[in-house]
Write a structure and sequence with these properties.
Blueprint lengths: L10 H12 L5 H18 L4 H25 L1 H9 L19 H25 L6 H13 L14 H8 L2 H12 L4 H21 L4 H6 L5 H5 L1 H25 L9 H16 L6 H29 L2
Helix pairs in contact: 2-3, 2-8, 2-9, 2-14, 3-5, 3-6, 3-8, 5-6, 6-7, 6-8, 7-9, 8-9, 9-12, 9-14, 12-13, 13-14
Length: 316
């Protein structure tokens, strides 16, 4: 039922609402780093268990789904305000609950179900496939940091560490977990590759907070942009963007094939576009900000893809 007008919602509308809340394209920011960990395991150890990889990928997707659905439920007031105060396609949630396309409680129930299914897969991986004693702890870290990013009473996003935890959970964690599931240990190259990916996924969350700034201020959602202000936040964004570029060659030095540097130029060009735009204050222009939000996601994906292609084409 449409809670605002008491009009039945069609199945087509409900399905569309669920797809909007699930955000399938945004699962790529977690799936690609997980693929990277598996590619590194294959190239460095010659091992690749496809059943473990597929179960692990499904668990990653379920944890992200739980995170997104919990965010829809707990951020509803802010998303409703953001929808009236200048959100763009990358901010303010999916607006599915705001538009009454899905009952609000269903989002929370869906989040719980996704989290439980992810936990079952973790048990399967550790005890059936015997992937190692750190399988469940690594999975729990992802579940806790993702689910409680928006969920009360912990709600990391209002404590000034949510963005940092997302950088960790979408950077180091999926690469390390995937490599560990295949090999039962970690290698230093995992850490080096995760740094630019972690920096840029932090920036994805960070820049998406700019259009939500007025709504977050009213609802007392203390994101880093609210805490630092837009101008100071633009400096931090730029520092992390440049830092990720500087760290790229260190991954080569740590073991990746030198030809992987071929992918550096397009990433550097896109990074220059967003960094210069932020430093020039173009975040005040809604259309320019939306474009920079999109490019920031692309930069993050390109780091993961660059490392994956480097491993698949040239190896170590």
């Amino acid at each position: 039922m449409n809670s605002a007008m008491n009009i039945p919602v069609s199945y087509k509308t409900a399905i569309k609402g669920w797809l909007m809340m699930a955000r399938p394209p945004f699962h790529s920011v977690g799936v690609l780093p997980f693929c990277l960990g598996a590619a590194l395991a294959w190239r460095s150890m010659g091992t690749m268990n496809w059943q473990i990889f597929l179960w692990g990928t499904l668990a990653v997707i379920l944890i992200m789904l739980a995170t997104y659905l919990a965010g829809e439920f707990y951020d509803l007031d802010g998303d409703r305000l953001s929808g009236r105060m200048g959100r763009n396609m990358f901010s303010g949630g999916s607006q599915a609950l705001v538009k009454d396309m899905v009952p609000r409680q269903h989002a929370r129930i869906g989040s719980y179900i996704s989290l439980i299914l992810a936990g079952i897969i973790g048990l399967l991986l550790q005890f059936h496939y015997k992937t190692g004693p750190w399988t469940i702890p690594l999975g729990l870290i992802g579940m806790i940091t993702g689910f409680f990013y928006s969920t009360e009473p912990i709600r990391f996003v209002k404590r000034g560490i949510g963005e940092i935890l997302i950088g960790f959970s979408y950077g180091w964690l999926p690469i390390a977990a995937s490599f560990y599931l295949q090999t039962a240990h970690l290698t230093p190259l995992v850490h080096w590759m995760s740094l630019p990916i972690g920096f840029t996924i932090f920036n994805v969350i960070f820049i998406n907070e700019f259009p939500d700034y007025p709504a977050d201020l009213i609802t007392k959602k203390a994101t880093l942009v609210v805490r630092f202000g837009k101008k100071n936040s633009s400096y931090l964004y730029s520092i992390l963007c440049v830092g990720a570029l500087i760290l790229f060659p260190f991954s080569i030095k740590a073991g990746l094939h030198p030809y992987t540097l071929i992918f550096f130029l397009p990433i550097a060009a896109l990074s220059f576009m967003t960094t210069s735009g932020m430093l020039m204050g173009r975040y005040a222009d809604g259309a320019a900000l939306e474009k920079m939000c999109g490019i920031t996601i692309l930069i993050n994906l390109l780091y993961s893809l660059s490392f994956i292609l480097g491993l698949l084409i040239w190896g170590l």
